[in-house]
Amino acid sequence: MGHMTLKDLASKLGISASTVSRALHDHPDISDKTKEVVMAAAEKYGYQPNPIAQSLKKQSSKVIGVIVPEIRHNFFATVISGIEEVAYNAGYIIMVCQSNETLQREIMTTKALAANRVAGVLMAISLETTNYDHMRALMHQNIPLVQYDRVVDELDTGKVVIDDFRASYKMTSHLIDRGYKRIGFLAGREGISMNRLRFNGYLQALKNHGAPFYPELNINIGGCRGSNGRAGAEEYLKMDNPPDAVLCINDPVAVGAFCRFREAGWRIPEDVALAGFSGSPESALIDPALTSVGQPAFEMGKTAATLLLKQLKDKDNFRPETITLDTELLIRGSSYKEDV
């Protein structure tokens, strides 16, 4: 049997669909006996209301759309868990979509969520996103939008972020303090504010500590996956004077670089130190464990969902705010130099 509809249930009972609907919604015009019969039949036949149909009728819903660049990334999976906890406790369900790091899919996803009348959207942009018309369209349709982690500064929405500049500055300073002299940077895609802030933090730390900047050691790998990290490491392996430490845009990139360096026979951290961002579980499983910036992913999800619910509660008086969460340096074996 297919999905039991309201009309199917009414047909089973031999009464009108409108009567069934009012009975299910505890309407005072329907007798208690009829309500009991309808409720019993709904349970017997497994009837479930269609939330999308209800949202189309009401022009709103109890569904929150969540857009992530990649579900397989542990950081975003943990963000989703934080979102879901807050949403569930507030009586909402979440609809999770991934852009797969492409602008085209991100645009399609925002349109689909808007068409399904979601109550609001929580979003981290893809690496390809440099045009924001689809995000503006959500706002023009009066659909509340809160950005998290990867955000568009130009859009006046709620935002939940970390201080990427400060975190990168602190991590670069750690590498300098450990005695590393030629510190490289494996960047993601140009145009993303997160990438720019982390690179600028790295540059400022070099400058403030009087450490040299070597432009050839700054490689834009165009992505945030392990394969991008391997490609970046490959470029370093070709150099006559390679880096002795590398700050990577995130943990997957750092782990990818780690594997390629190891395949080439390089010792970590003796030949090259590595550091990443996010503090993912896998970063602690490699040997030596990866030094990383610990990002509060679960807390970021909870905070973003709470900010969206605040906007849903009072759309007219809501004023967008940016919430910056704390990070911590997770100093591990991949950046520990014995002779310092």
Automatic annotation (TrEMBL):
> Which parts of the sequence belong to the HTH lacI-type domain?
4-58
Check the record and name the Pfam families matching this protein.
LacI, Peripla_BP_3
So which domain of life are we looking at? Bacteria
> What keywords are assigned to this protein?
DNA-binding, Transcription, Transcription regulation
Molecular function (GO) terms for this protein are:
DNA-binding transcription factor activity; transcription cis-regulatory region binding
Q: Write down the SUPFAM superfamilies for this protein, in alphabetical order.
A: lambda repressor-like DNA-binding domains (SSF47413), Periplasmic binding protein-like I (SSF53822)
Gene3D superfamilies in alphabetical order: 3.40.50.2300, lambda repressor-like DNA-binding domains (1.10.260.40)
What's the protein called, per UniProt? Answer: Transcriptional regulator, LacI family
Which species does this protein come from?
A: Maridesulfovibrio salexigens (strain ATCC 14822 / DSM 2638 / NCIMB 8403 / VKM B-1763)
Lineage at the top is: Bacteria, Pseudomonadati, Thermodesulfobacteriota, Desulfovibrionia, Desulfovibrionales
